Amino acid sequence: MRFTRPRDLAVAAVVAALLAHLLLIAGYNSLPRLPAFIGLTFLVLGGVEAWFGFSLRSRIQRKPGTVPVEALVAARAVALSKASSLAGAIMAGVWGAVLLYVAPRFADLEAAAGDTLAAVVGLVSSAVLVGGALWLEHCCRTPEDPDESDKITRLRR
């Protein structure tokens, strides 16, 4: 299994931003106002995933006083982190498109003022989700076996 590449997340964000921008051009006037803190859910999820990553990391590294992690738990955590990082990247693209659309219209449209705050909160929250998910995925890596790393070092010499 490969780890999530930032390039893949960037492509997803750009495609989502382009699609969202086209939809905003076509129908922004018919949309209701966005709640200011609509994106906070992703902020909470990102924080939980980061905390889960710290918890799993010490267990995977078998630090004293921790219970070892079952392989299925680690596999599920990696699946969660991959899905969350992709969802966060897509939503960051969408919120970025909303921000780029409403920020220039801040003074002209009353709805754009409120939507700008919602877009900033959503963009920051989506970025936190991506960061938390990537940290969780990083924490699920198995530690190198000391014997294996010695063999590799000796082979390189």
TrEMBL record:
User: Cross-referenced Pfam families, in alphabetical order?
Assistant: DUF3180
Q: Which residue ranges run through the membrane?
A: 9-28, 34-54, 86-104, 116-136
**Record keywords:** Membrane, Transmembrane, Transmembrane helix
Asked if the Swiss-Prot or TrEMBL record annotates the protein with the keyword Transmembrane, the reply is: yes
InterPro entries linked: DUF3180
Name recorded for this polypeptide: DUF3180 domain-containing protein
What are the leading ranks of the lineage?
Bacteria, Bacillati, Actinomycetota, Actinomycetes, Pseudonocardiales
